[in-house]
Design brief:
Strand 5 (58-60) and strand 6 (63-69) form a beta hairpin. This protein has helices spanning 26-31, 73-79, 114-124, 145-150, 170-180, 192-202, and strands spanning 4-15, 18-24, 37-40, 52-55, 58-60, 63-69, 86-93, 104-110, 129-136, 155-159, 166-167, 185-189, 207-210, 226-228, 234-236, 243-245. A seven-stranded antiparallel sheet has the order 4-3-7-1-2-6-5. A seven-stranded mixed sheet has the order 11-10-9-8-12-13-16, with helices on both faces. The longest helix has 11 residues, at 114-124. 45% of the residues are buried. By secondary structure, the chain is α/β, with parallel strands linked by helices. The protein has two domains: 4-93, Beta Barrel (Elongation Factor Tu (Ef-tu), domain 3); 104-210, Rossmann fold (3-Layer(aba) Sandwich), CATH 3.40.50. The structure holds flavin-adenine dinucleotide and FE2/S2 (inorganic) cluster (FES). FE2/S2 (inorganic) cluster binds at residues 215-218, 220-225, 236, 238.
């Protein structure tokens, strides 16, 4: 797979430290599916050797959207891109998420974890009974709420401080609703403790989690992304994921 150049067509800030960048790349957009990610070259010199993985948050025609939180030099650099700049991108990488039909589907997103669930939501909304749960620290940190609602899916909110929706954790909001469904299909993306808690409280209901931990090459070569399986052995979540059955791995 060779990298491609993709012009930035729109860039804006969504919340404190959270940014949205739309790129145009027809070939990439055509191949991209929910659950996959792009490896973006950032900075120059040695820094550029290790690309930064960012999930595909949305797709419209030949455009793809990246939504990211700034945590270090790479994502800071990305947040300074403007319309007219270009990105050097490898992808799409990872396995597409499973896309069921006719099911009770629940999407549970914590913080920036809402981003990759939006693309999945668009794909699944028309073919399933879908409900979305979004959690954030406070109202100002909630992202993509309007976009999820525009898919026609009910969206429920939880914030730590109660400034929007129910006060408390998104896992507490989702748990009783999911447990009422006959054979629920659950997807989740968010911080590792949130994924671990959701998997624990819903057990034995399987949870398909988007793993966004640190990774290296992104293409199966370096083993930086090994996750231990409960049944023994390891998976590389850049290849076997990033969407994995949380019940089967040690988080
Ligand atoms: C498959 C995949 C998809 C991802 N999708 C998204 C996305 O859609 N939006 C988004 O905001 N982020 C996403 N991430 C995380 C993103 O790749 C990292 O935040 C980014 O690589 C950090 O680069 P940096 O140069 O800014 O920070 P660095 O300078 O590399 O690190 C700065 C700090 O951030 C921490 N950090 C670095 N990488 C991660 C990580 N993966 N998870 C948690 N903390 C980290 C480091 O420990 C360090 O403390 C994804 C990660 C993976 C593996
Ligand atoms: S990141 Fe290198 S093998 Fe997964």
């Amino acid at each position: 797979m060779s990298p491609v150049t993709a012009p930035v067509v729109q860039a804006r800030r969504l919340a404190a430290g959270v940014f949205s960048v739309w790129i145009r790349q027809a070939g990439l957009a055509q191949k991209s599916k929910p659950g996959q990610f792009l490896n973006v070259r950032v900075l120059d010199g040695l820094d550029a050797l290790l690309r930064r993985p960012i999930s595909i948050a949305d797709k419209q025609g030949d455009r793809l959207r990246l939504v990211f939180r700034t945590v270090g030099r790479g994502t800071e650099w990305l947040s300074r891109r403007r319309a007219g700049d270009s990105l050097d991108i490898l992808g799409p990488l990872g396995r597409p998420a499973p896309t069921p039909t006719g099911k009770d589907v629940f999407l549970v997103g914590g913080g920036i974890g809402a981003a990759p669930l939006l693309f999945l939501c668009r794909r699944l909304a028309a073919r399933n009974r879908l409900q979305v749960f979004l959690g954030a620290r406070d109202k100002g940190h909630l992202i993509l709420r309007r976009e999820f609602r525009d898919t026609g899916s009910p969206v429920r909110i939880a914030t730590d401080d109660g400034s929007a929706g129910q006060r408390g954790m998104v896992t507490e909001l989702a748990e009783p609703v999911v447990k009422q469904a006959r054979s629920p299909v659950v997807y989740a993306c968010g911080p590792k403790p949130m994924l671990a808690e959701l998997s624990r409280c819903l057990d034995p209901i399987p949870v398909l989690g988007f793993v966004e931990e640190r990774m290296g090459c992104g293409t199966g070569i370096c083993y930086c992304c090994a996750l231990e399986r409960k049944a023994g052995g390891y998976i590389r979540f850049c290849q076997d994921g990033p969407v994995v059955l949380l019940n089967e791995v040690k988080l």
